[in-house]
Amino acid sequence: MATEVIMPKMGMAQETGTLLQWLKKEGEWVNEGEPLFEVMTDKVNMQVEAPASGYLKGIRAHPNDVVPVTEVIAYIVAEGEEVEAAPRPAEVAAPSEEAARAEAPSRVTAPAPTIEARGPVRATPVARKMAQEFGLDLSRIRGTGPGGIIVQADVLAARAAPQPAGRPGRRVPLVGRRRIIAERMLRSAQQAPHIALTIEVDMSHAERTRGEASFTAVLVAKVAPLLVKHPFMNATLEGEEIVLLDEVNVGVAVAAEEGLIVPVVKAAHRKSLAQIDAEIRDLARRAREGKLTLDDVTGGTFTISNLGMFGIEEFRAIINPPESAILAVGAIIRKPVVIGDGIAIRPMMKITASADHRIVDGAVVAEFLRDLKADLEGQPSNAGT
Asked: Which pLDDT value is given to residue 231?
């Protein structure tokens, strides 16, 4: 009996996964537990193992297809066993160019479908082939087949539709992790009313006491205990309830080749600076090498984004949903500052906290930044006063 191969669900909130590549070909033998395909979620790329031994048949998803979780994408069958070919709504074979022209008027009787950005890219094999031949981006074609799948008629209609005037230049499809990031950030910006406050910190004390640790590690070590003192900065919104989270898991934004990824330092408030620094270095290295696991990038409760190494002095970051706040860290700039009645050159750094105003009021953000500044400067904290 054929074994279904499905798009796995690897997170509670996950609804789709992007198929990156098959590691076996149609009709090829695969052993149970052997890597079968690679999938990308909004968190990480992962190889998925074969659920059984047999021949891979009936592949229904292709590279860069965004597939709902638990949907069947192929089968593993025994020798001599066959499965039905993948559905090909409204078409049974790739038509000749003449046949396509002849049938287009009878099949495209309604106005041409609007060409617009869309979510999952699901297309029949013939539609996919035609789109490639015509140089059309499937992600910008509205599917009219069952379940919104793109069929041949949709591609023909898209080819015939007037194309919007565009500026000359190289075009890069918005696919993969870049598309996922775009969707998540748009959702965050639209749904969470952001409030952002900035404070400047004298990093002299931090420079003297950090040892070999990175400044990002110092920030994680200072922020983590403050999230316990300021629980609304370490919260999430679930329905009509604000959940003040028990865990303090600090995500650190890392720029990887495929796009931004946020590995997480778990239970950061219980770890020393040295432990945090070693963990961040390991996570950053594996992020750049594409070797992070799902556990490495899930469970975050607060995020730090540091662009200081690029010379950026100040910026506002978009909240990483479903968290309530994020800290944007700028470069350390040596400049003259007033100290008492005199002027001295000090390493100054601006940090900006953005928070979801549905959960956090401005005064809470201000108190959090005040206490973080005090800790970084080696001054007594006013938390709780």
From this structure: 97
CB-based contacts of 5, cutoff 8 Å, min separation 6: 36, 37, 50, 51, 56, 72, 73, 74, 75, 76
Q: What is the pTM of this model?
A: 0.68
Q: Which of 168, 122, 162, 167 is nearest to 144 (CA)?
A: 122
In this structure, which long-range contacts are made by residues 371-375, counting pairs with CB atoms below 8 Å and at least 24 apart in sequence? Answer: 371/226, 371/229, 371/230, 372/199, 372/201, 372/222, 372/223, 372/226, 373/199, 373/200, 373/201, 375/222, 375/226
Confidence at residue 181, expressed as pLDDT on a 0 to 100 scale: 79
207 CB neighbour count, 10 Å cutoff: 13
Rounded to an integer, what is the distance from CA 306 to the centroid of its chain?
Answer: 17
Instruction: Let me know: does 234 contact 302? Beta carbons within 8 Å.
Output: yes
- Residues with a known catalytic role: 357, 361
For residue 336, CA distances in Å to 198, 218, 329, 350 come to 19, 24, 20, 15
**Per-residue confidence band for 127, with pLDDT thresholds at 50, 70 and 90:** confident
Contacts of 357 (CB under 8 A, 6+ apart): 192, 193, 194, 195
CA–CA dist 329, 265 (Å, integer):
17
User: In the numeric block, which tokens belong to residue 222?
Assistant: 């200072």
Model confidence over 344-354: pLDDT tens digits? 999 999 999 99
Report the distance separating Cα 274 and Cα 213, nearest Å: 7
| Structural contact between residues 131 and 141, judged by C-beta atoms closer than 8 angstroms | yes
Q: Three-state DSSP class for 223?
A: helix
Q: Do 324 and 233 meet the contact criterion of CB atoms below 8 Å apart?
A: yes
- What is the C-alpha separation between 190 and 177, in angstroms, rounded? 20
The backbone region for 18, taken as left when phi is positive above 0, alpha when psi lies in -120 to 50, beta otherwise, is: beta
Question: Pick the residue with more confidence: 231 or 66?
Answer: 231
Number of C-beta neighbours around residue 157 at 10 A: 22
Q: Is 261 helix (H, G, I), strand (E, B) or coil?
A: strand
* Residue count of the chain: 385
Contact 79, 9 (CB under 8 A): no
Collect all residues with Cβ–Cβ distance below 8 Å to 70 and sequence separation of at least 6: 6, 7, 9
For tokens 């638990």, what's the residue? 70
Q: What is the model's pLDDT at position 120?
A: 54
